[in-house]
Amino acid sequence: MALSEKGQANMKSCLQPLPKVLVSCRGLNGEDNVLAVGYCGNCSYAPPMVMVGIVPTRYSYNMIKESGCFVVNLVDKSYCAKFDYLGSHSKRDGDKIAAAEILLGESKIVKAPILRECPVNIECTVVDSILTGSHEMFIGKVEYVHANSDILDKDGNIDYAKIDFL
Prior knowledge:
With 166 residues, this protein is mainly beta. The protein has a domain at 21-38 and 58-124 and 144-162: Electron Transport, Fmn-binding Protein, Chain A (Pnp Oxidase, Chain A, Roll). Helix content is 13%, strand content 37%. The protein has helices at 59-67, 80-88, 96-99; strands at residues 21-26, 32-37, 40-45, 48-54, 69-74, 104-106, 113-115, 120-131, 136-147. The strands form two sheets. A seven-stranded antiparallel beta sheet has the order 2-1-5-8-9-4-3. Strands 6-7 form a two-stranded antiparallel ribbon. The longest helix is centred in the middle third of the chain and has 9 residues, at 59-67. The protein is globular, with a radius of gyration of 17 Å.
């Protein structure tokens, strides 16, 4: 196998975080919102924690900062059009949840909605955050995980091969 010559690549997104997710949140006034997030990943398995990166100018930023919770919703390809809409519109400009016909449900533990059509919803309580430049990374302790029953094995483990991720 011949080695390819290397060139300098753009550093902005040199690691493409996967999967693409939608983060849902609820403000202290009861207002719900959903935003597309490109920076998301596991950061601890004991206790289970995930992190999401939110730009401080985003509409949802203060909702998460003040409420101290969020839900990570894993997205499959059937949700592509809704993902694109939610990722390209701000709640500042109108009710994008209604416009995209998003079906919300209630969480079991945290005070933020789940996206009922997404195969996995991860309820999180903010335990820490760090400003990293363009984003604030919110570290969320996983409080509860909802998953469609057809992707669960008998022990409650998620079979990620059954999800056609976006």
